[in-house]
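[scheduler] slot 2 assigned
[scheduler] job type: sequence-to-structure, two independent chains
[scheduler] chain ordering preserved from manifest
[runner] begin chain α
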Amino acid sequence: MLSPKNTKHRKQHKGRIHGSAKGNSELSFGYYGLKALQPERITARQIEASRRAISRHLKRAGRLWIMIFPDVPVTGKPAEVRMGKGKGNIDRWVCRVKPGTIMFEVDGVDRELAKKAFDLASAKLPVKTSFIALDSY
């Protein structure tokens, strides 16, 4: 699963996801893409599940790019632990996704195959998504 090798700070505040995507809102590498329509935190497990769904449906044809990376640590305390005693340990890594962010890109496959693969991947993600292509701009 994806996680950073090292970070400047071990723990972070939760923060909020305001506004729309500043960058990464147009296709950079592939011909087809999966774009987020809502702000949400996407975990490394969800990214990996989506990647597996796409690559299995494409049968490793074409090329896949993952355009997001989980670099935000989320802490959690164990079950049945009393309040207080500080912030918990790092539980998982997430990526903050703003509306308009392209999460996955694919090239080298036909439109129907890419659309079906992105539909399967979208079912693994907690955000509403849209399928985009270079010819739809």
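[runner] end chain α
[runner] begin chain β
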Amino acid sequence: MTRPYSNDLRERVVAMAESSPNREAGSLLGVSAASVSRWCTRKRQTGSVAPAKMGGYRKPILLAEHDWLVARLESDPDLTLRALLAELHDRGVEVSYGALWNYLEREGFSFKKNRVRQRAGSAGDCEATSSVA
């Protein structure tokens, strides 16, 4: 993500724009005329040239379903994300595959393919035990 210009540069540009056109002030200090115009407007409206907050925090959609998700995954740990997504849809929760994946990853759940194979043992183990008998 890009960073906003420094307040020092913004203040110099706005000060220069008071005595010369925006396009000229911008070209002398290496910023666009549109940026000069926005910074001058911000200075008039708020008294400061500081940038507004970038980004933000968005509360996870699945936070309300946390207890149900944990209970569901503990009762059936081999449940796939697609099946879990379908069950959430049946419960009336509209969420994307990516949002579900990100939420479960943040909560520490892991969906490794090897977990099932480790429980059942590998194909080589079955052959070894059958040839011994």
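[runner] end chain β
[qc] chain β: Helices lie at 7-17, 22-29, 33-46, 66-75, 81-90, 97-106, 114-120, 123-132.
[scheduler] slot 2 released
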